[in-house]
Amino acid sequence: MTITSKVSLAQIGTEQRNPRTMAIDTLSTLEMVTLINQEDQQVIIAVNQALPEIAKAIDAIVIALKKGGRLIYIGAGTSGRLGVLDASECLPTFGVGEEKVIGIIAGGDRALRHPVEVAEDSEESVIADLKAIGFNDRDILCAIASSGRTPYCLGGIGYAKKMKAKSIALACVKESAIGKIADFTIEAVVGEEVITGSTRMKSGSAQKMILNMLSTGTMIQLGKVYSNLMVDVRSTNEKLIERSRQMLMDATDCDYQRAVTLLSAADGHVKSAIVMEILNVDYQEARQLLEKHEGHIRHLLTAKRED
């Protein structure tokens, strides 16, 4: 009896053997890490070439969030973990939680720490996962898959289309299966992995960089950043409280004690405290002004100068 594989890896770039690393097991430790570092430099090039598509995806995410939708990351294995990581970091950094950004990994939270590789093969389970969060036409889906062919991701994009929601494909190969059906396609082609098929390496690094851009770029466009300061930070521990004070000092040139006083009056909200100090207004008026200008300090200050 002849046995044939259900999955053909022969044409998938991330599954090819890397001719430059075939003797990596013969190298000294320094030679080994030097070679890995050289290969990692291909990640920068690949991401750079994908910048126009990344920018289009950010603009689409901004539109969705402004309409009351959410950014939903989905993926399996390393790709899923990276999506969950990026989503979870939006709360402390930008004051945005699951009401705006959600990460879903195939196999559920257990898969964050333990391999549940079979979960990626189900196009049906992703539909259940998306239904569980009330995925709808205002949301935007970002499917992450190094190979660009993960069934879990294909099923997710298919469901997004059925719901008339926009979708983004993030892959590390050319002409990916998910890219062919998504509304926006990002393909950062990093080439063969250092260790054949180990997409947690170059592919994972590229995905992490791109996810950083997607979430950070979106939050900048939504007014969550003033200059290069994360002014919607949630001050949930001592480090973040001190960071909030330092940001306020940097943004307004006030001294430390004034920063402490302002933040106390602003209920710890850096953005409001900045407006209070620059415009000499109270907390209530600062919040009203920010709401009028959709949370953008820069827009608010420009409008005040033009009055």
TrEMBL record:
The keyword Lyase applies. CDD domains: SIS_Etherase. Pathway: Amino-sugar metabolism; 1,6-anhydro-N-acetylmuramate degradation; Amino-sugar metabolism; N-acetylmuramate degradation; Cell wall biogenesis; peptidoglycan recycling. It catalyses: N-acetyl-D-muramate 6-phosphate + H2O = N-acetyl-D-glucosamine 6-phosphate + (R)-lactate. The active site is at E89 (proton donor), E120. Keywords: Carbohydrate metabolism, Lyase. It holds the Pfam family GKRP_SIS_N. GO terms for molecular function: lyase activity. Its EC number is 4.2.1.126. Residues 61-224 form the SIS domain. A lyase-type mechanism (elimination/hydration) is suggested for the cleavage of the lactyl ether bond of MurNAc 6-phosphate, with the formation of an alpha,beta-unsaturated aldehyde intermediate with (E)-stereochemistry, followed by the syn addition of water to give product. Homodimer. Belongs to the GCKR-like family. MurNAc-6-P etherase subfamily. Specifically catalyzes the cleavage of the D-lactyl ether substituent of MurNAc 6-phosphate, producing GlcNAc 6-phosphate and D-lactate. Together with AnmK, is also required for the utilization of anhydro-N-acetylmuramic acid (anhMurNAc) either imported from the medium or derived from its own cell wall murein, and thus plays a role in cell wall recycling. This is N-acetylmuramic acid 6-phosphate etherase.
